[in-house]
């Protein structure tokens, strides 16, 4: 049975690609056949992490040239590991049509291998959420930094809402209730999933039970990266508690990875860390994650679940509407502060950092304006 392992993050720069590449190679070293897929479409650079030369075979060529899917699965220099390249020359791949997504999903599921590891893009685009929900056991990578924690939580919240809207299809009483509720987005974002489930059970008990079953199946796994101090690991337990309380979601703690400067040297050498320095602290952490992945009993969503099946069920997530984005982020902050995951001191520090960045941007803007004005005046004199 092929196991699909999507790996995502709420924001970039937290080590998602680092984990994807090194996990694939460490699984391969233990005799498992692995296909590593770069699904960070529009910003594909996973080939640099594994030292793979970019070729003409990629997901972009498969979509545009109608080639066979098996032809884009390329061998690598690493035992038991194959690679499917993304394509940063075709950024609109993040807006694939429903039929294209279904075709991609079908081909990914039919790969003859032990593991398919999907390195997803950062953020909560619907394509990313659909790919993450290909398995109930996807991995979310976060870090102790306030923004990373917040965005990791928001990603999981978006995934739960995507699961909710995919389950309550158009025409069901529950969907009608959700559509009415959504007209007041501020109120909806303040509702916790357990409260929402209780209300939905009154108007659509049958579909609500299906959603509850899927939530019981949904067990994403968390990896905390860039740990500086053992106390940073406590943040993972607080994220787990917030997900349980406000999302009705049980997440599993897969492990932590300490910040290691060797990663920069490995990247410069175009060698994965588990090859460059397998005995390093970070290398050993990745091997522990691989051991847990192998030991985990795989399970899937029910056979009727297909997140990309109906384009009309497009959930307007946080990145698609500015108002929803703002209210969604605020609700995420409320959840994490109420659950003790974020302290008021951490929020104050984040606000100070953002204020400083805004001030710097304003200064740069003023400088550019003055240069443009000066250039315009000189042009006028000429």
Write structural notes for this entry.
The structure is a single chain. By secondary structure, the chain is of the alpha/beta class. The chain is built from 16 helices and eight strands. It has helices at 16-29, 46-49, 59-65, 98-109, 126-132, 146-167, 173-182, 185-190, 193-203, 205-217, 234-247, 262-268, 273-276, 281-295, 322-338, 344-381; strands at 3-9, 34-39, 74-75, 81-84, 115-120, 139-142, 221-227, 252-258. An eight-stranded mixed β-sheet has the order 3-4-2-5-1-6-7-8, with helices on both faces. Strand 7 (221-227), helix 11 and strand 8 (252-258) form a beta-alpha-beta unit. Helix 5 (126-132) crosses helix 6 and helix 6 crosses helix 10 (205-217). The chain starts with a strand and ends with a helix.
Q: Can you count the helices?
A: 16
Question: How would you sum up the major sheet?
Answer: 8 strands, mixed
**How big is the Rg?**
22 Å
Distance between the termini: 73 Å
Write down the overall geometry. globular
Name the strands of the widest sheet in spatial order.
Answer: 3-4-2-5-1-6-7-8
């Amino acid at each position: 049975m092929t196991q699909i392992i999507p790996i995502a993050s709420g924001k970039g720069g937290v080590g998602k690609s680092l984990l994807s590449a090194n996990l694939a190679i460490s699984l391969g070293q233990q005799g498992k056949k692995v296909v590593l897929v770069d699904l960070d479409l529009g910003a594909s650079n996973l080939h640099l992490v594994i030292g793979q030369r970019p070729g003409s075979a990629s997901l972009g060529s498969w979509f545009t040239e109608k080639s066979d899917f098996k032809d884009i699965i390329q061998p690598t220099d690493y035992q038991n590991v194959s690679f499917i390249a993304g394509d940063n020359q075709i950024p609109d791949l993040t807006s694939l049509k429903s039929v294209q997504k279904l075709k991609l999903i079908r081909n990914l599921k039919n790969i003859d291998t032990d593991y398919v590891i999907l390195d997803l893009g950062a953020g909560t685009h619907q394509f990313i959420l659909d790919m993450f929900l290909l398995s109930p056991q996807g991995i979310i990578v976060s870090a102790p930094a306030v923004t990373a924690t917040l965005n990791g939580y928001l990603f999981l919240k978006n995934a739960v809402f995507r699961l909710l809207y995919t389950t309550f299809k158009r025409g069901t009483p529950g969907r009608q209730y959700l559509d009415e509720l959504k007209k007041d987005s501020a109120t909806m974002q303040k509702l916790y999933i357990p409260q929402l489930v209780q209300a939905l059970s009154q108007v659509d008990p049958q579909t609500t039970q299906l959603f509850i079953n899927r939530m019981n199946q949904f067990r994403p796994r968390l990896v905390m990266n860039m740990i500086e101090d053992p106390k940073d690991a406590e943040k993972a337990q607080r994220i787990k508690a917030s997900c349980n309380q406000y999302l009705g979601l049980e997440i599993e703690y897969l492990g932590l990875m300490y910040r290691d400067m060797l990663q920069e040297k490995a990247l410069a050498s175009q060698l994965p860390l588990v090859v460059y320095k397998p005995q390093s602290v970070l290398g050993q952490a990745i091997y522990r994650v691989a051991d847990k992945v192998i030991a985990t009993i795989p399970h899937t969503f029910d056979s009727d679940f297909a997140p990309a099946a109906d384009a009309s069920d497009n959930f307007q997530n946080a990145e698609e509407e500015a108002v929803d984005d703002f209210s969604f982020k605020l609700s995420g902050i409320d959840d994490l502060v109420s659950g003790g995951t974020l302290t008021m001191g951490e929020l104050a520090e984040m606000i100070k950092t953002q204020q400083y960045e805004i001030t710097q941007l304003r200064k740069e803007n003023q400088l550019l304006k003055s240069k443009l004005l000066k250039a315009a005046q000189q042009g006028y004199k000429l």
